Amino acid sequence: MAKILIVEARFYGHLNDLLLAGARAAIEAAGHSHETVTVPGALEVPGAIALAAESGRYDGYVALGVVIRGETWHFEIVAGESARALMALTLDGLAIGNGILTVENEAQALARARPEEKDKGGEAARAALAMLALRERFA
User: Fold this and answer.
1) Has 74 been annotated as catalytic?
2) For position 73, what pLDDT does the model report?
3) I need a surface site. Which of 12, 23, 85, 134 has the fewest CB within 10 A?
4) How far apart are CA 80 and CA 62, in angstroms?
5) Of residues 30, 55, 57, the one with CA closest to residue 130
6) Which member of 14, 32, 34, 74 is catalytic?
């Protein structure tokens, strides 16, 4: 049984609740355990995963959050840099599922976050588990 850490950027609580429900359900359905930690925003998610990885307590990670385009260029920075940092950690050998939504508006976020619709939280958890299995295969 693997132990998965879910790291959520809790900027939009109602959307994160949906992502968390999907991720937790997917991990539990696969027979694994999980813990959740919360960080302020998407830019802090990779740092939290890096810190947790140093502890050696987790087998895989699920990154969750929502970045909604606003009126400034900040959206591109947050979306791009959080994805880049998660990819760097993945290339270092961590099993990570990226469930940080980058959307134009709340309606898009809701459709992607709801477990009964696109279930991106569950999808990210399944991706983390798939990467964990692949890492174990190649170990």
Assistant:
1) yes
2) 81
3) 134
4) 17
5) 30
6) 74
What letters, b where the CB count within 10 A reaches 16 and e where it falls short, cover 110-126? Answer: bebbbbeebbbbbbbbb
Structure tokens at 71: 């009126």
How does residue 116 score in pLDDT terms, banded at 50, 70 and 90? very high
Both tokens of 52, joined, read: 């947790």
Could you read off the pLDDT of 55-95 as tens digits, one per residue? 999 999 999 999 999 888 888 999 999 999 999 999 999 99
Residue 50 CB contacts under 8 Å (≥ 6 apart), including other chains: 89
Q: Which residues touch 4 (CB under 8 Å, ≥6 apart)?
A: 27, 32, 33, 34, 35, 58, 59, 60, 61, 62, 125, 128, 129
Number of C-beta neighbours around residue 107 at 10 A: 9
Quick one: CA torsion of 68, 42, 19, 8, rounded to 10 degrees? -150
Average pLDDT over residues 103-107: 96
